[in-house]
């Protein structure tokens, strides 16, 4: 997952460079390339959004599996700098949950206070639900928020495409001085 994010960031940086440099140099070729890259990225984002909506159950299952692996790593770790412990703490603080939906997850707040947020152990044990349930709620109940974010990104990209094409056409129709 990290490598995909790095690659996407590098592509976005390159596309942004094309747009900025093309606008500064008033180059139709660079602005046309920028527009083409935006169209391709827009199509990829729409395809990824449709794929994610169709496979939301599989994605939720993968996220739960990732959480379980991080949770097992955090249980076995002794040091505070463990990556698994940081991931688990992030899940717990974001989703307000503690542990997976098995017996180990149910008793974890009693003996691993450092993994669960909250003031007291009893509060953690009574109020915090398991993270598997919270992950399912996130993908079923909060799906509209993900959809709204995707629509906002799509609208911004459409405006970018329109403005880059207007700039490209304006450069072509301008008189050379």
Automatic annotation (TrEMBL):
Topology versus the membrane: Multi-pass membrane protein
Transmembrane feature ranges: 5-24, 30-54, 143-167
Keyword Membrane: yes
Biological process terms in GO annotation: adaptive immune response; regulation of cell population proliferation
GO molecular function, one term: lipid binding
Cell compartment(s), UniProt: Basolateral cell membrane; Membrane
Disulphide bond pairs: 97-131, 98-116
Superkingdom assignment: Eukaryota
Main localization, broad class: membrane
Cellular-component GO terms for this entry: basolateral plasma membrane
UniProt keyword list: Adaptive immunity, Cell membrane, Disulfide bond, Immunity, Lipid-binding, Membrane, Transmembrane, Transmembrane helix
Alphabetized Pfam families for the sequence: Tetraspanin
Homology family: Belongs to the tetraspanin (TM4SF) family.
Protein name: Tetraspanin
Organism: Antrostomus carolinensis (Chuck-will's-widow)
Lineage: Eukaryota, Metazoa, Chordata, Craniata, Vertebrata
């Amino acid at each position: 997952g990290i490598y995909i994010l790095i690659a996407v960031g590098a592509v976005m940086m390159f596309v942004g460079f094309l747009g900025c440099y093309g606008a500064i140099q008033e180059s139709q070729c660079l602005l046309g390339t920028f527009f083409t890259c935006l169209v391709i990225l827009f199509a990829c984002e729409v395809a990824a959004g449709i794929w994610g909506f169709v496979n939301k159950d599989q994605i939720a299952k993968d996220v739960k599996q990732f959480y379980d692996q991080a949770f097992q790593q955090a249980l076995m770790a002794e040091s505070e700098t463990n990556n698994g412990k940081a991931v688990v703490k992030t899940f717990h603080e974001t989703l307000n949950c503690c542990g997976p939906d098995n017996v180990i997850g149910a008793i974890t707040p009693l003996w691993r206070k450092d993994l669960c947020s909250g003031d007291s152990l009893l509060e953690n044990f009574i109020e915090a639900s398991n993270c598997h349930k919270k992950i399912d709620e996130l993908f079923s109940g909060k799906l509209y928020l993900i959809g709204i974010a995707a629509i906002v990104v799509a609208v911004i990209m459409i405006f970018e495409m329109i403005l880059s094409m207007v700039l490209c056409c304006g450069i072509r129709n301008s008189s050379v001085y």
